[in-house]
Amino acid sequence: MPTGTILLIDDEAMLRQAVARTLELEGYTVRQAPDAMRGLEALREHAEEVLVVLSDVKLPDGRGLDLLPRYKALAPLAEVVLMTAYGTIPDGVRAMKEGAFDYLTKGDSDDQLIVVVDRAAEKARLQRRVADLEKKVGAQYGFESMIGHAPALEQAKRLAQRAAPTDSTVLLEGPTGAGKELFAQAIHQASARRSKPFVAVNCSAFPKDLLESELFGYKKGAFTGALADKKGLLEEANGGTIFLDEIGELELNVQAKFLRVLETRQFTKLGDTRPTSVDVRIVAATNRNLRQEAEAGHFRPDLYYRLAVFTVPVPGLNERRADVPELANYFLQFFAAKLRRRLRGLEPEALEQLVRHDWRGNVRELKNVLERAAILAEGDMLTVDDLPPEFHYILPAPGLDEATDRTLRTMEKRQIRQVLLDTSGNKMEAARQLGIGTKTLYRKIQEYGL
């Protein structure tokens, strides 16, 4: 049995009651209004739940056809069905053109009314499911999903958000692993093309002799093995966005062909004689300095200037160290859930080592380090011992004054240092050998400046 809310607007009380009863017997909740003013008030109040607005064309304070845009403005995901006592073809055509789902004549059978309302309600439900999915995708891939608030990241986000609503080509510049694809997805989600395809292409992942055919496609018989026509990735992205990662890897002949796409939105497939047109937005990324590459003759200058219409510098992790704790905790909880482990967080020393590390692999490297650590962790808190060897402290040798100092404090410091050296910095094992708790050991390390 169908469910959902129908808003019924009609000034004829007896007819309104009869229609409401018919729809309620079908399982719908029916809200009623005798005129346009109260109908609009009810729709404004219950817009989230109303699936279908069933409105008379002739109301005491307005005409249904004129009210149609107001109904759609208040409840964009609801469908509107208009009813009239004297249906005419021109009015029906106008109603459909202006967004009405259907146009009924009063006195039609209840079966016809139910069929139309059911179809309208189903379409409204589908629209709501699509809208919910778009919200979830937007939350997952939008600018709001980016973790961190470092000034360099915020500046890059502001620039990308300015470019996103346009159709301009965007060039993302930044080191490998900094999150350029995440920026590209966010730009796509913030654009009018969000409901169309987002196609990501890593130009360095294809053999050079295959990249052209993958991008542009080919016709049957274009080369040995071309047994059927094949769409290229540009065609797959038609109407949406294509993200070209590591675009500096394109060969010069492919660059020339791609330049034509930027200039005319057309290209010719391998083995074809007629051009193919596409409507696609281009977002490119590089970890190279394309301006220098162009000056050195390794990249076409004309293509560079067409790509760099709007450039966004994506900062590496070393430029946003303040974001490392938040990113580290996010990845730790992500992998803890994936591995079904209970991990509450990171010990202060482990977090300090992560912040101080030289992140040449950027966010991707941090993610890999946290995945490894989550697998190795024995307790519910991540320690330095769970991190790769390069994160362990290198302890200095004792000074001359300390070697001759026989005070209890100095001897304790010397003993702790020696045990830490003997255990290769393993804090849990060192604490066991010293006969003290791990927390006590960490406190002593801090106290003695080890």
What structural category arises from helix and sheet content? Answer: alpha/beta
Rg over C-alpha atoms, rounded to the nearest angstrom = 33 Å
Query: β content, as a range?
Result: 5-15%
Largest sheet at a glance? Answer: 5 strands, parallel
Describe the structure.
The protein has 450 residues and is α/β, with parallel strands linked by helices. The chain is built from 19 helices and 18 strands. The chain has helices at residues 13-25, 36-45, 64-74, 89-97, 110-141, 151-163, 180-189, 208-216, 233-236, 252-264, 290-295, 301-307, 324-339, 348-356, 362-376, 400-404, 408-422, 427-434, 438-447, and strands at residues 5-9, 29-33, 50-56, 58-59, 62-63, 79-84, 102-105, 170-173, 198-202, 217-218, 230-231, 241-245, 266-267, 276-277, 281-286, 310-313, 345-346, 381-382. Strand 6 (79-84), helix 4 (89-97) and strand 7 form a beta-alpha-beta unit. The longest helix is centred in the N-terminal third of the chain and has 32 residues, at 110-141. The protein is flat. The termini are far apart.
Short description:
By secondary structure, the protein is α/β, with parallel strands linked by helices. The chain is built from 19 helices and 18 strands. The protein starts with a strand and ends with a helix.
Defining key terms:
18 strands, 5-stranded parallel sheet, alpha/beta, 19 helices, 450 residues, single chain
Tell me the layout of helices and strands.
Blueprint: E1 5-9, H1 13-25, E2 29-33, H2 36-45, E3 50-56, E4 58-59, E5 62-63, H3 64-74, E6 79-84, H4 89-97, E7 102-105, H5 110-141, H6 151-163, E8 170-173, H7 180-189, E9 198-202, H8 208-216, E10 217-218, E11 230-231, H9 233-236, E12 241-245, H10 252-264, E13 266-267, E14 276-277, E15 281-286, H11 290-295, H12 301-307, E16 310-313, H13 324-339, E17 345-346, H14 348-356, H15 362-376, E18 381-382, H16 400-404, H17 408-422, H18 427-434, H19 438-447
Parallel strand pairs: 1-2, 1-3, 3-6, 6-7, 8-15, 8-16, 9-12, 12-15, 17-18
Antiparallel strand pairs: 4-5, 10-11, 13-14
